Amino acid sequence: MSVKTSSNIVVLLFMFLTVSSSYNHEGNNKHYKPCKRLVLFFHNILYNGNNKANSTAAIVAAPEWGNLTILTSEFHFGDLVVFDDPITLDNNLHSSPVGRARGQYIYDAKNSSSSWLGFSFVLNSTDYHGSINFIGANPHPLKFRDISVVGGTGDFFMHRGIATLMSDATEGQVYFRLRVDIKFYECW
User: Fold this and answer.
1) Where does the secretion signal sit in this chain (predicted)?
2) Quick one: how many helices (H) and strands (E) in the chain?
């Protein structure tokens, strides 16, 4: 066999291997399993002008037509709310907190109920120490919404994953409780 024929065979073999290794006729069927999982609840009580003593969230910016004690119009577009909410292991607001949810949500859609979230869980209990950082879109009409877990500190150092939010309870515009199912896919 000549050198030219050998070279052609090697090139053809290389091309075949490259094409066959990148071809996946069934799509991406990878199913990852979380390396750690937590389910926590956070309880948000929006200040409405009459509940200063027990409110855990406040409107800090509103559009020109809004105010700082009542969410604007039907979809609350333009309202910016900051919060410092208790986190519990169950759905009871009066359970002992294991930490605080601290951050903000911005109502960012004019024609639907949606907000953008950026917040941290700051945990300081016998079981967990450290923070977990979250960011993402929160389309309220969906029963389950996924947001990104982008990092953490302490027991959650460099952890990343997905948090599935579910509205567990609401009371008008003043109170809501979120069930947060955190699945870490990168654990250090």
Assistant:
1) 1-21
2) 1, 9
